[in-house]
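TASK: fixed-backbone design
INPUT:
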């Protein structure tokens, strides 16, 4: 990526758009806690959200200000007589628009109207409600998490820590909004577990990407939870991960995407709370395979596209690794926080 485009990607933007589980998004919005707008750790980023201005309206992208107001991108483009190079209802379209799209966002934000609504007055949806491919994910990317699961794993073949990232995918139907309910089906699984993760959103098509250039391909970051049905993963499918990771709605993401320049990875912590009790808390620095390594390995002979999502792994503290084990049940509230990015909350229902 050329220097100018790299700098513009680090300008960032943020939005949360449409959800697959729309009724859940609407009902969850009615009794949710106030949305927290965390200070960004980087100096040149934006929060880009995908949202509904009201029930019955069409979803669109918006820019969330530091004081919690939301700039309606299509409305502002009309008001400022700007022809956009991307579809203002699609985060994937924005990520693919490159430097030009980010320049347009910067102009819209700078010249925004003074009449803006608070982010708590809208319904935030998943930033990318319909991923174009499975969500890529990294397993065992924290040493403590690898160790905590050893005694309970059905598949005991892997005894030593892998020398390259362990990669798997979650189906697209797992995508869920930042404040939507997570479905619970006791007839199929009663061991639903939490896995707080930092999600990376790709901003440029690439293949065989070097570690040195990998960060040039990052559009931004979001909070993500790789919610997992452990009994399905470990027993029903003999340690094979895909199905246990891919139940409907078991991948909430949001509350927006913070573009690359808005996040200082050295300041990032990955945190999960269940019913207000902290279960996980680790730093990006504790991540064994850092983002450049993950992107480089994943892209070997495999093309990454703008809008692709990579969940970078969860730290220790999951229910499966505890003694006694703990699992989510209906009524529980799962809160996932990525410091400097945002907080999502999902009720098990």
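OUTPUT:
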């Amino acid at each position: 990526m050329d220097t100018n485009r790299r700098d513009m990607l680090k300008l960032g933007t943020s939005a949360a758009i449409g959800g697959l589980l729309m009724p859940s998004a609407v009902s969850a919005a009615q009794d949710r806690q106030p949305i927290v707008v965390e200070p960004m750790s980087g100096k040149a980023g934006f929060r880009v959200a995908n949202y509904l201005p009201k029930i019955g309206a069409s979803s669109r992208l918006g820019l969330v200000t530091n004081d919690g107001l939301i700039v309606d991108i299509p409305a502002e483009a009309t008001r400022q007589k700007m022809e956009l190079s991307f579809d203002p209802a699609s985060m994937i379209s924005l990520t693919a628009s490159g430097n030009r799209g980010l320049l347009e966002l910067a102009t819209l934000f700078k010249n925004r109207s003074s009449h803006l609504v608070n982010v708590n007055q809208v319904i935030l949806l998943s930033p990318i409600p319909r991923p174009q491919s499975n969500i890529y994910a990294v397993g065992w990317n924290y040493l403590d998490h690898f160790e905590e699961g050893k005694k309970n794993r059905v598949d005991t073949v892997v005894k030593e820590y892998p020398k390259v990232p362990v990669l798997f995918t979650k189906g697209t139907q797992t995508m869920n909004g930042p404040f939507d309910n997570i479905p619970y089906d006791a007839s199929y699984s009663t061991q639903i577990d939490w896995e707080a993760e930092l999600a990376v959103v790709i901003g440029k098509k690439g293949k065989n990407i070097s570690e040195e250039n990998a960060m040039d391909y990052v559009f931004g970051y979001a909070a993500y939870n790789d919610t997992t049905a452990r009994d399905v993963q470990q027993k029903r499918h003999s340690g094979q991960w895909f199905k246990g990771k891919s139940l409907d709605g078991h991948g909430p993401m949001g509350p927006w995407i913070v573009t690359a320049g808005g996040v200082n990875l050295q300041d990032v912590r990955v945190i999960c709370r269940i019913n207000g009790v902290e279960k996980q808390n680790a730093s990006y620095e504790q991540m064994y395979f850092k983002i450049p390594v993950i992107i480089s390995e994943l892209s070997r002979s495999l093309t990454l596209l703008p809008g692709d999502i990579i969940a970078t792994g969860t730290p220790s503290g999951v229910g499966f690794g505890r003694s006694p084990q703990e699992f989510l049940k209906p009524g529980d509230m799962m809160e996932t926080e990525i410091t400097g990015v945002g907080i999502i909350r999902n009720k098990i229902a």
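COMMENT: Residues 98-110 form the longest helix (13 residues).
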